[in-house]
Known about the structure:
The chain is of the alpha/beta class. It is about 45% helix and about 15% strand. A seven-stranded mixed beta sheet has the order 1-7-6-2-5-3-4, with helices on both faces. It is globular.
Amino acid sequence: MRRLTAILFAIVFYPILTIYTIVSVTVMTLYMLVTAPFFSHVKNMHRFRRLIKVYGYGIIHGLARPMGPVIYKAAPRDTKTAKLIICNHVSASDPFLMACLQEVSVQVVNVWPFRLPVWGVFARWSGYLNVKHMEPDAFVEACTKLLQDGTSVIAFPEGTRAGEKPMGPFHSVMFRVALATKVPILPMCIYGNAHAPARGSLLLEPSTVRIHCLPEITWETYQSMTPFQLKNCVRELIQEEVERMKTL
């Protein structure tokens, strides 16, 4: 029954998504062209990244809402402070769920999002980082510049979607960025979207998706750690919270 519901929903969802995307791209492009001369490059990039967030918000809380709610919960924090946001990776819908965050942000992604029509263009325009095509030193430098400009950086350090399987090990590069920049680290936990969609599928099966942002980890807390120790510390925090979320 769940699969039949997902099939019927997909028949309606994807045509509407196409129309929504075309309208969004047109409005965003016209808005940026008209207003860009009145702002600096940094401010224009911030504005464009916020527009992408609005676009994603419309998908998860509008178009995809009939398949289940997205419940967001977060500890208090300063959303205007640039930070590293470290998240477990469940499904291809994870990047869209980042629209729940208030921070101006870019995402560290693998190769495949850049190959998507429209979304790949958005990713390039907004300065998303392709971790596969950058040398480690260049990657750290790019992250540092974004953070200095007030842009938070979102990463999925597992590097691949876990689905319903246990979380994979974390790669270390983002934690080398943290130690180099001394910015806060925000652990972010996702649960419930393993089949929205599942790997190799386009179907969004009915589910309640939960997103929990844990308290930030400050420089004073992690300054004495190595990248290896820090990545394992953050992974353990996320893993414990995801296990707790399964019982809700």
